[in-house]
Amino acid sequence: MRGTKQSQNVIKTSNKLTKLKPTDKMKTKQVKAYGTQSPEADLKEVQIDRREVLSKDVEIDILYCGVCHSDLHFARNDWGMTQYPVVPGHEIVGKVTKVGSAVSKHKVGDIVAVGCLVDSCRTCSSCKNDLEQYCPEWVGTYGGFDKHLQTNTHGGYSEAIVVDEDFVLQVPNHLDLAGVAPVLCAGITTWSPLRYWNVNKDSKVAVVGLGGLGHMAIKLAHALGAHVTLFSRSTNKIEDAKALGAHEVVISTDQSQMEKAMGQFDLILDTVPYEHDFNPYIATLKTNGTLVVLGYLGPLDPPLVTVPMIMGRKSIAGSLIGGIAETQELLDFCGKHNITSDIEVVNIQDINTAYERMLKSDVKYRFVIDMKSLKN
Fold first, then answer.
1. How many angstroms separate the Cα of 267 from the Cα of each of 153, 166, 211, 273, 283?
2. What is the rounded CA–CA span in Å between residue 108 and residue 124?
3. In CATH, what class is 11-185+322-375?
4. What's the pTM?
């Protein structure tokens, strides 16, 4: 992630709105957004500059933007890499309002989406293999480095965005557009490992944690034909999990249930975003099975016990979102199977409250901002 290479531009304040000034002569226009200037400050209305459309650019009027845990972590500098001001948002759905002269993939009026990245080097092995998310120079939708304006990139908590056409996705028109927004992050984060590990009707898949990622993992694995199990600490999640498509729920705090689950799963998607013990779940993998870490970034405590890994050729792996082609594949799959996220729509003015509720897991299962609330 290019989150550490940021502009050192001057921040000016006028009419109580913060504006980040570009450093070159490129033509820009101002749009309203919501952002913050420090880890302690609430998000508030700000002005940002968007570049005028270049030959390969698509201008998008943002209709909805999902609220991801990463938005909160980045706004509050939990990962120690944030440069301010920051405008979060990388689950964007909107309508094309203008295209550049060389654009061939999208037209004015199209319903489109933008996910977690807006550029990459285009030349490395990862980019050449449609794995832009692993490009050493990939540019995040926010917190990256905007080579055009020489500033940090700003995300979807805004009226509009301008993005290179190669990083803009087509959305099936019949889907609920607000529900599509979290597919751009929570959806692709779970879809990518399901596809890489070739999940199908013969697969037994388990999901650890029922939140934004977990509920999408259940829906997608079920739609692929897999037998799906949820690991949960709470019996309160059983009915919800089955309604989403889980065939079984294993209560991970019940030793007898965990013993019965030993050696059962081809793939486990661990979506829990905080430190926890992976060892009990590794024991439930089949020989050659893999546990994929999707939610937690950081050191492990307690440490991994490698004995069951060695004795059963079991693996633990990680996975990061997905490339552009894979994300389009996911959107097409969701269109075919009528899959969207379960959401609660909020106004942008309530984003700080939404962050606090998100920390308490007080949402089923993703907040999505109706961007009309900013424009009005």
1. 35, 32, 18, 18, 12
2. 31
3. alpha beta
4. 0.91
